[in-house]
């Protein structure tokens, strides 16, 4: 059982954490025709926007209420009103998703109140869904913003259903955590469909940020789950939540519609996927398709091939709680030692990470610990690149943001197949590192007690 | 120590800014920050601008006082290059939490400064103010002063919280911080008559190193570069330079002008983008240095270097001429402000679409700058479908623009090249221009385009979004042509001023209602041209068209 501690430093160096509001906007990006809106100064939006664009290499919709100094002090009603009207007129969104920021929370803007008043004054907005979530920058982290926002979407957008209502046995709600990529969501979709199930993903980043070329260009999101589909999620037979962060949304769904849920904290690794397959088989009443029986064998074989390289590796990992728990557990199960662990925010999974200590801290902490404990595999997001080059150890980029490599949206870790490919990637990194940096030399094993002295043979 | 609002006023009063000089007293007071439109704004905040301007100082610790968003969402995102320290790429932030908001963040900031000094011992720390601590009244000037005294190290407050305005205001506020706290605080070991400052150059992709070897060859010493690959000490003694070059972006014009005022360092505005501009800039540097005491033979050597480099570059560009024959470039940017890039593209045989300007008279230059400036602004407002049609109508073969239009161009299977600051290649100086040609050639002739333009086997060609978009636009055009009242509505709905969202109809109505004859009159009544001012030309055209029949009638 890991001890969870929080860094005592006054100065965060090389942050691992990103802010809560953009985690909220990220969730709104998985809705069709959506315009995420941050209630704050324009920088709050532009920094987040730049990060998303660099990660996905896609145009990303995101707007700002553009709070000036004066507006911040006097309160932002006019700015919220104008922003909503402007977005409504210019981009015709199907939904506007609003998150607060540090500036507007410090003032204490009552945005829910604003929205009621705006609706009164502008009846043309009657049918336009407006979802507001309070997400101050000075609390929590990216993952929390996502968690709160998805839970709020359920509360506002899903039509209530009586607990005893007749449900569609084939329809399944999937509530994915923000650690899953569009590629992961597509993999889950395929798996569920192979069981004859009809999944609804909330949110569905695979529809909007999978890098496709859209039929119709819109200034809002180019895909994702529609507001109409969300409204009917109460008719599903089950909700599957992926990642502990999604428990809140799953509970909200159950409270509102009576749909029972099953939480899968992990979908990377052999055993978690066995459990997942067994559950899908149970709720669909179908046997596990042959395809997945074969994939299980492939994963098992990949583990056999890769354990020579991954076993005994000392892992340094910096990630948000759910991604951290998933990856570190899978590697622990492959024989890696989880040595240096840093995360961003509190979570019930942290104490179950297979390590001594989990630190809520930054990448400086991770770098120091990795160095002190001789770690030889680093996993974190792209901001770890400076630490990796100083540590000179193999570096696998995982999580958000990944701005210095391509294909972030398609990097997969779920399912037998996703786990298999991830294991190959990691093992290959280790092999490449050994070839490049650890080739034996005549002096590799010479003991250094007496220096590197060589006593010349005596001539007789 | 002046207050933040006084500093902002002072920056707005900048007499070195050409745009400012044309404004009335009242307009100047209002400043050059265009009022941002909620729900329709793009771009960074003043903090962003300050950080961009100063972060390229490589040996300084840049400490951001604020909640995690300001630094955590943005660090290590600029492509400046360093020849030495990597400290500038590390990120330092106080990551303020709820307790700090309630009790104030000054103590945390002080402790953070202490930690940074203990761990990294930088020659100086720049402390950036952000919105939240500004709101709760954290006095970073006082904290920095106390820390500087206590630790015996420069701790420089950069007072530019995001909500005071946009990025370009932040650039200038950063400059003010340097003027107030750093420049002139140290002395160089020695000076020479060949010492210059380069101001407003960030060494993105290391591109300044495309020009530096030439300066080295001429024996010209860069005493301080503000701020690309800059070092704190060089900045502190930069007041001993003999001359300065203000790189064409106006980001730090206040620094150049005030250094002239305070220390008598003459400056000129120049650019190293394009062959002609590079040569002009080298000449101008030599001229200013000679004026300030360098030997006159510097000019001869400079001319020799220019002649050699120009000959080499033009010879290298010659190779591209057959490849670029009949190829059309759509150049859309506010980023490349250099006429001579256009000249070089034309010299290489590329046709620039959207302008018929061929000769480089001064008026032609102004005209093309204005044209491109407007389009750059217009494009941010365009729907992707409109942009696709524009590309199609222009029959362009490649589009050169800033990052924002990238995805539409690429998804329309249109070769595209980034010429704004996010790009990963240096395009500076003579070498850089040739590099730009190479990149254009690579993009134009990539065999991938032909494949991507083919429809999928299950599409009959009419189903691609491109075909649909064109069909839709054509249908719209036909509908408009068939219906005079719709045509009139559409004509009147044409947006003229993109900053203030003013359409042609409202401008015409205002002209009629108030008998307006001048751009200023139109501005007063409609707010058009009250933003960036790029649409003034369009307003003049509208006024001229309105007035022409009246004048005829009068005759």
Please, how many helices of chain B?
27
Classified by CATH, the class of the largest domain in chain B is Alpha Beta
What oligomeric state best describes the polypeptide chains here? heterodimer
- Structural Rg of chain B: 26 Å
Strand portion of chain A: 15-25%
Kindly report the name of the CATH homologous superfamily of the largest domain in chain B.
Answer: Nitrogenase molybdenum iron protein domain
Measured distance between first and last alpha carbons of chain B: 63 Å
CATH topology of the largest domain in chain B: Rossmann fold
Q: Percentage of helical residues of chain A?
A: 40-55%
What does this structure look like?
The complex is a heterodimer of chains A (460) and B (555). Chain A is of the alpha/beta class and 460 residues long. Chain A folds into three domains: 20-157, 3-Layer(aba) Sandwich (Rossmann fold), CATH 3.40.50.1980; 168-289, Nitrogenase molybdenum iron protein domain (Rossmann fold, 3-Layer(aba) Sandwich); 294-437, Rossmann fold. Chain A is 43% helix and 16% strand. Chain A has 17 helices and 16 strands. In chain A, strand 3 (34-39), helix 2 and strand 4 (63-64) form a beta-alpha-beta unit. In chain A, helix 7 (142-157) packs parallel to helix 11. In chain A, 56% of the residues are buried. Chain B has 555 residues and is of the alpha/beta class. Chain B is built from 27 helices and 14 strands. A four-stranded parallel β-sheet of chain B has the order 2-1-3-4, with helices on both faces. In chain B, strands 6-5-7-8 form a four-stranded parallel β-sheet, sandwiched between helices. Classes of the chains: A alpha/beta (460), B alpha/beta (555). Strand 2 (12-13) of chain A pairs antiparallel with strand 2 (92-93) of chain B.
């Amino acid at each position: 059982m890991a001890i969870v501690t929080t860094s005592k430093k006054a100065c965060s160096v090389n942050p691992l954490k990103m802010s809560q509001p953009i985690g909220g906007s990220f969730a709104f990006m998985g809705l069709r025709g959506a315009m995420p809106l941050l209630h704050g100064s324009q920088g709050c939006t532009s920094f987040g926007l730049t990060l998303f664009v660099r990660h996905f290499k896609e145009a990303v919709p995101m707007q700002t209420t553009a709070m000036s100094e004066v507006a911040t002090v006097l309160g932002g009603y006019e700015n919220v009103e104008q922003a909503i009207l402007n977005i409504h007129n210019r981009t015709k969104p199907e939904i506007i998703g609003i998150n607060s920021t540090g500036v507007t929370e410090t003032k204490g803007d009552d945005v829910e109140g604003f929205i009621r008043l705006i609706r009164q004054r502008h009846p043309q907005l009657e049918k336009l869904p407006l979802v507001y979530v309070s997400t101050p920058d000075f609390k929590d982290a990216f993952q929390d913003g996502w968690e709160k926002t998805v839970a709020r979407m359920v509360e506002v957008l899903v039509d209530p259903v009586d607990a005893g209502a007749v449900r569609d046995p084939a329809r399944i709600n999937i509530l994915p955590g923000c650690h899953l990529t569009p590629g992961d969501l597509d993999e889950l979709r395929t798996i569920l469909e192979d069981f004859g199930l009809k999944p609804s993903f909330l949110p569905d980043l695979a529809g909007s940020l999978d890098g496709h070329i859209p039929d119709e260009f819109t200034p809002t999101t180019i895909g994702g789950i529609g507001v109409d589909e969300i409204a009917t999620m109460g008719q599903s037979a089950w909700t599957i939540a992926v990642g502990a962060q999604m428990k809140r949304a799953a509970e909200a769904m159950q409270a509102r519609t009576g749909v029972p849920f099953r939480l899968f904290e992990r979908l990377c690794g052999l055993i978690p996927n066995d459990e997942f397959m067994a559950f899908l088989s149970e709720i669909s009443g179908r046997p596990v398709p042959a395809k997945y029986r074969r994939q299980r064998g492939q994963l098992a074989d990949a583990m056999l091939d890769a354990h020579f390289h991954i076993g005994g590796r000392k892992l340094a990992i910096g990630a948000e709680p759910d991604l951290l728990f998933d990856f570190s557990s899978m590697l622990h199960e492959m024989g890696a030692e989880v040595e240096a662990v840093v995360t961003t925010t509190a979570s019930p999974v942290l104490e179950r990470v297979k390590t001594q200590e989990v630190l809520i801290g930054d990448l400086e902490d991770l770098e120091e610990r990795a160095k002190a404990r001789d770690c030889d595999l680093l996993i974190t997001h792209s901001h770890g690149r400076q630490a990796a080059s100083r540590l000179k150890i193999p570096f696998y980029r995982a999580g958000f943001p990944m701005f210095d490599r391509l294909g972030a949206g398609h990097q997969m870790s779920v399912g037998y197949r996703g786990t298999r490919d991830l294991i190959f990637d990691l093992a290959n990194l280790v092999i490449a590192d050994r070839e490049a940096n650890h080739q034996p030399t005549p002096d590799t094993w010479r003991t250094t007690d007496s220096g590197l002295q060589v006593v010349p043979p005596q001539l007789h | 120590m002046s207050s933040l609002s006084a500093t902002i006023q002072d920056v707005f009063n900048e007499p070195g800014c050409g745009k400012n000089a044309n404004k009335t007293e009242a307009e100047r007071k209002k400043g050059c920050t265009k009022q941002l439109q909620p729900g329709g704004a793009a771009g960074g905040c003043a903090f962003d601008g300050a950080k961009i301007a100063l972060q390229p100082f490589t040996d300084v610790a840049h400490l951001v006082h604020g909640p995690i968003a300001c630094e955590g969402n943005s660090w290590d995102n600029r492509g400046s290059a360093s020849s030495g320290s990597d400290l500038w790429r590390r990120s330092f932030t106080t990551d303020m939490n709820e307790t700090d908001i309630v009790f104030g963040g000054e103590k945390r900031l002080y402790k953070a400064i202490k930690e940074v000094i203990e761990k990294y011992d930088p020659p100086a720390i720049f402390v950036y103010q952000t919105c939240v601590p500004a709101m709760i009244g954290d006095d970073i000037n006082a904290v920095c002063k106390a820390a500087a005294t206590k630790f015996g190290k420069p701790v420089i407050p950069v007072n530019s919280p995001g909500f005071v305005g946009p990025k370009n205001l932040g650039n200038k506020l950063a400059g003010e911080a340097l003027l107030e706290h750093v420049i002139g605080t140290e002395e160089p070991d020695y000076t020479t008559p060949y010492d210059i400052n380069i101001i407003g150059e960030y060494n993105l992709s290391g591109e300044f190193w495309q020009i530096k070897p030439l300066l080295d060859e001429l024996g010209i010493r860069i005493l301080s570069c503000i701020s690309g690959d800059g070092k704190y000490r060089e900045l502190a003694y930069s007041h001993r330079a003999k001359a300065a070059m203000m790189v064409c972006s106006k980001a730090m014009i206040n620094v150049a002008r005030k250094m002239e005022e305070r220390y008598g360092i003459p400056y000129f505005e120049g650019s190293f983008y394009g062959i002609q501009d590079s040569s002009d800039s080298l000449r101008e540097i030599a001229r200013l240095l000679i004026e300030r005491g360098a030997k006159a033979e510097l000019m001869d050597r400079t001319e020799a270097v220019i002649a050699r480099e120009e000959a080499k570059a033009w010879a290298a560009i010659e190779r591209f001429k057959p490849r670029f024959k009949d190829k059309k470039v759509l150049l859309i940017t506010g980023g490349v402000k250099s006429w001579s890039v256009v000249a070089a593209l034309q010299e290489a045989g590329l046709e620039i679409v959207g302008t018929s300007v061929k000769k480089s008279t001064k008026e032609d230059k102004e005209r093309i700058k204005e044209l491109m400036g407007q389009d750059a602004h217009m494009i941010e407002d365009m729907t992707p479908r409109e942009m696709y049609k524009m590309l199609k109508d222009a029959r362009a073969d490649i589009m050169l623009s800033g990052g924002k239009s990238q995805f539409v161009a690429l998804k329309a299977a249109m070769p595209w090249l980034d010429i704004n600051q996010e790009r990963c290649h240096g395009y500076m100086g003579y070498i850089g221009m040739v590099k730009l040609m190479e990149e254009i050639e690579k993009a134009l002739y990539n065999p991938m385009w032909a494949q991507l333009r083919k429809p999928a086997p299950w599409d009959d060609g009419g189903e691609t979004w491109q075909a649909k978009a064109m069909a839709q636009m054509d249908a719209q055009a036909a509908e408009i042509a068939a219906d005079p009242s719709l045509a009139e509505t559409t004509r009147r709905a044409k947006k003229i001023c993109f900053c203030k969202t003013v359409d042609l109809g409202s401008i015409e109505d205002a002209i009629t209602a108030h008998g307006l004859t001048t751009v200023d009159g139109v501005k007063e009544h409609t707010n058009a041209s009250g933003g960036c001012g790029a649409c003034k030309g369009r307003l003049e055209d509208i006024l001229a068209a309105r007035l022409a029949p009246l004048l005829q009638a009068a005759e």
